[in-house]
Amino acid sequence: MQYIQLEAVKHLLRVGVPLPFNVRQSDGKLLLARGQIVASGTQLESLYERGMLVDIAELETARDRILKAPRKLLPTLWNKAIDRAGQALLALPTDGFDVVVEEVAQPLVALVERDPDLAIFQVLRQHGNGQTQYGVNHAIHCAIAVFLSAHRLGLQAADVQRAFKAALTMNVSMFELQGQLATQVGPLTPDQREAIHAHPQRSVQMLQVAGVSDPEWLDAVAQHHETSDGTGYPDGLREVSQLATLLHRCDIYTAKLSPRRSREALTADVAARRLFAEHPADPMTAALIKEFGVYPPGCFVKLASGETGVVVRRGESAHKPHVAAMTDARGASLSEPVTRDTSQPGYGIVAALGAGSARLPVTPEKLLAAVCA
User: Fold this and answer.
1) At which of 292, 314, 336 does a domain end?
2) pLDDT beneath 70, residues of the chain
3) Are 260 and 232 in contact (CB under 8 A)?
4) Can you give the pTM of this predicted structure?
């Protein structure tokens, strides 16, 4: 092992925030394990003065590890990053939350950058505890859409990162309620309506108490349900920040793609058409639809050949992605997926299929394998 003085990486440490690496004594023996918390500034200074060490290999960032990981490991890395983000967002700390959000956002952003198609697949194909953790999952899906759209719009890197973190945290005050509503069939109760109406400001208040002070981040959260025509909530504003408007568009779009007990998810082409009809001349809507395409990765489709399959890669045109055919024209399962370029004659997409009507005889694992092939 090669070591570096702990004091040399003091910029990575913060009182009350879990250690991002192991801290070792001068003889290399473990003193504090990764994830432990330094309780006070005095304790931290004492570690510096005693010459504590850090293994240089542990300073490799999550981004570094993801960008060089074998492709076949990406689905596992996605699961880990989503689980870690979920735990952090559901356990809102009392201080240092901006650092925590930065830590969980870093691997998610790296995964989006490494493979945008696989990132979009996470939004379309939602497995596991989607309803019990609906709020957190939706926040992550919205953040993915925000990141991709912000890049296409040419936003500055700092604003892209800020928008991503705002999307993750815009609903921290109602994650539990979102999970309830995902499984609820009946109408909203008066208390639920009040909580929904108040959640932007309550989320801002929680973030401020937890140490978030970036005014643009907080404004984006406060205004993410406001609209320029004054019909939004909670304040009916007409002047809405750019980041808040971007969050609003992505929030609506990804919600349309999410199933609830009371309704199936919309197919991606229908979700795109409805969003465009609501905001036909809006550059943010255009950027979002161009990034996802009409048939995004994870979308089930039927081809002119009679085959059915799942979109695995976006194509040069929004209407002509690459598809992994899972069945033949008679509906019989193929032993191995066959890649089809839908820009080629005879393989165009004739319909997007809902999850319930697709009936593809494949497991989620096989779908992911097709995307990562």
Assistant:
1) 292
2) 93, 126-132, 358, 361-364
3) no
4) 0.85
